Amino acid sequence: MSILNDVPKQLFIGGKWLDAEAGATMPVDDPATGEILCQVADAGPEDARLAEEAAVAAQEDWARTAPRARSEILRRAYEIILSRTDELALLMTSEMGKPLAEARGEVAYAAEFFRWFSEEAVRIDGGGYGVLPDGRNRMLLTRRPVGPCLLITPWNFPLAMGTRKIGPAIAAGCTMVFKPAPQTPLTSLALAGILREAGLPDGVLNVVTTSRADKVVEPLLRGGRIRKLSFTGSTQVGRILLAQCADTVVRASMELGGNAPFIVFDDADLDAAVDGAMIAKMRNMGEACTAANRFFVHSSVADEFAVRLAERMGALVVGPGTHDGVDVGPLIDDAGRAKVEELVADAVGRGARVLVGGATPDGPGRFYPPTVLAGVDPASRLMDTEIFGPVAAILTFDDEDEVIRVANDTPWGLVGYVFTAGLDRSLRVSERLEVGMVGLNTGLVSNPAAPFGGIKQSGLGREGGRVGIDEFLEYQYLAMPVK
């Protein structure tokens, strides 16, 4: 595949492409076939130290760079990304599996973070000046970059998760060590090349691809020179990283797991509810932290909703993401598919009815069919486990208070979806859900202009929106005597 030949396979440190220590490499495979696409550099602790040194060395000059200059670099990168939509989409599909149409959508979504933060870069202000209440001092508030950052991204949105973190860091004046997921390093390396082309100075962004995250990340967090961690991934890993941040009090923002409830009331527009369910469940083959995990449908409309959803899910075409007409690509790896298989088997063993799907197809690749389960026992494992696959589990309810109680009965609180025609109920239920985001009569909440993030064990802080840049800035207060 020619696109693979054009993508760097080395580490990007201090503006140079470098081999990993001892020439170590790791494979990148195609989840649609299981075949190896290529080998990329597999960084070790010494490589991470070099990347950290490059980021620290570049920090002072980069922090003094004019906001307009930082803005223009992001704007140029935005335009380059869009000009290479087809190439980047094919690269993502090759290493991650999503259909090309969906990958093209991610390119547009990812690019928009750079455009959004190019506009925010020139709007940084302290927001405070005046005489303090005691009349003795004047106060001046300024904001400045927090310093060198460690950015860690997952494999499910290889381009967008990178731009969502890199964009505000550049806008704020922070340098970075960027560690992408080992399953999808190629998109991140291509992004580094784009930013270099857009004029990003050497050392501001350093990309360290590795299969040995524990050996690379912990020394950076405990070393005292990294001042900010931005992580997207599982809650389990997030807890470990937070503990590692504690020794040197590294500022951390976390976008962690989800267990999204999807609630359909008796007055809901079922056409809109099914449309919303298809988006909330099947975006990225269900491999998204925002994916609807638990479907609670009012008993009076549950049968009709289940039939309609099963029809729509059953009509989806499963296959390699590079093939025309494919709606559902493979899952990321064998472990991910095995997890889905086990969760479905557990639910069926507890009495759930399979309306469509539910059986792993023969042949190569990590494919799993779109699956709808009805009559799911609330004690099923998939009720308190992030499925990360194309499985919709339907339960029924009759009482509003009870469904809210059950929806909130989870340690996660990223997003919830509510479908109802009543304005009062819309607001009442949304306000009572213990989540950071609510999709009200819509199955899509993500937008670069909106603050993304959760509560409880779904994370700390927000990404995107006007507050997204705040995670990379800190206040400084100046006191001046009144004379």
Automatic annotation (TrEMBL):
<dbReference type="InterPro" id="IPR029510">
    <property type="entry name" value="Ald_DH_CS_GLU"/>
</dbReference>
<comment type="similarity">
    <text>Belongs to the aldehyde dehydrogenase family.</text>
</comment>
<dbReference type="GO" id="GO:0102810">
    <property type="term" value="F:glutarate-semialdehyde dehydrogenase (NADP+) activity"/>
</dbReference>
<dbReference type="InterPro" id="IPR050740">
    <property type="entry name" value="Aldehyde_DH_Superfamily"/>
</dbReference>
<feature type="active site">
    <location>
        <position position="255"/>
    </location>
</feature>
<protein>
    <submittedName>
        <fullName>Succinate-semialdehyde dehydrogenase/glutarate-semialdehyde dehydrogenase</fullName>
        <ecNumber>1.2.1.16</ecNumber>
        <ecNumber>1.2.1.20</ecNumber>
        <ecNumber>1.2.1.79</ecNumber>
    </submittedName>
</protein>
<dbReference type="GO" id="GO:0036243">
    <property type="term" value="F:succinate-semialdehyde dehydrogenase (NADP+) activity"/>
</dbReference>
<keyword id="KW-0560">Oxidoreductase</keyword>
<dbReference type="InterPro" id="IPR016161">
    <property type="entry name" value="Ald_DH/histidinol_DH"/>
</dbReference>
<dbReference type="InterPro" id="IPR016162">
    <property type="entry name" value="Ald_DH_N"/>
</dbReference>
<dbReference type="InterPro" id="IPR016163">
    <property type="entry name" value="Ald_DH_C"/>
</dbReference>
<feature type="domain" description="Aldehyde dehydrogenase">
    <location>
        <begin position="17"/>
        <end position="476"/>
    </location>
</feature>
<dbReference type="Pfam" id="PF00171">
    <property type="entry name" value="Aldedh"/>
</dbReference>
<dbReference type="InterPro" id="IPR015590">
    <property type="entry name" value="Aldehyde_DH_dom"/>
</dbReference>
